[in-house]
Amino acid sequence: MNSHEIEYKLYGDDMQFVEIELDPNESAIAEAGGMMMMEDGIEMETIFGDGAKGGQSGFLGKLVGAGKRILTGESLFMTVFTNSGAGKKHVSFAAPYPGKIIPIDLSELGGKVVCQKEAFLCAAKGVSVGIDFQKKLGTGFFGGEGFIMQKLEGDGLAFLHAGGSIYKKELQPGELLRVDTGCLVAMTKEVDYNIEYVGKIKSAFFGGEGLFYATVRGPGTVWIQSLPFSRLADRIFASAPSAGGRSTGEGSILGGIGDFLNGDD
Length: 265
Description:
- By secondary structure, the protein is α+β, with helices and mostly antiparallel strands.
- It contains five helices and 19 strands.
- It has one domain (about 5-240): Double-stranded beta-helix (4-Layer Sandwich).
- Strands 5-6-3-10-13-8 form a six-stranded antiparallel β-sheet. It has a six-stranded antiparallel β-sheet with strand order 11-12-9-16-19-14. The protein has a four-stranded antiparallel β-sheet with strand order 1-2-7-4, with no helix packed on it.
- It is globular and about 60 Å long.
């Protein structure tokens, strides 16, 4: 194997974190700010790109790899956590918002998984974190994740994070599934991914589901989330107090009565 052979354990339910066990000289990579805790003996180093083996060598190669990460909206740098001690050590990475952590063994999935650009949490060192260009213009302009998605390549373990509950679907050859563009988390490389117009003007403007949806066609595996972060953020923003300090969300009528009784204008 090119990737380090790490072991892991998941904790929690709605706000999960993953604990990775590292043997001496083994390493894990993660996005900056993802670490929750680590034991004594683990060294942390910030690097350009992902530090994957077999990639371009030298400073220029690392700079090109890091520059590609910027296109996905990620940081220029990644963090490597290495066990420099004599025994087994542990480092933990926390989910950024309520949802589930998805362990993915790339060696069992053809060596490549395409995912949303913000889904990656951490991985064994040796896993390449890059960009995956969608060839179809419809996918690029209306796919919800932009023209570029993230790809994970290699033969090691990687961990994704998604919101709400996660549904793993095994698509048979030719089987088609229509998915809200924000709910599609990841898919194996065999899956044919495209964007389609809902078809009816009334449904598009008054149905509340948007103008486009994603279509995924088998064979392959897809992971779908029940609560995209964008949907969660919209609900929080809609329920947040207005600039005057009053809530614009639920209970607005009772809130208005309360303001009247309190003497507010």
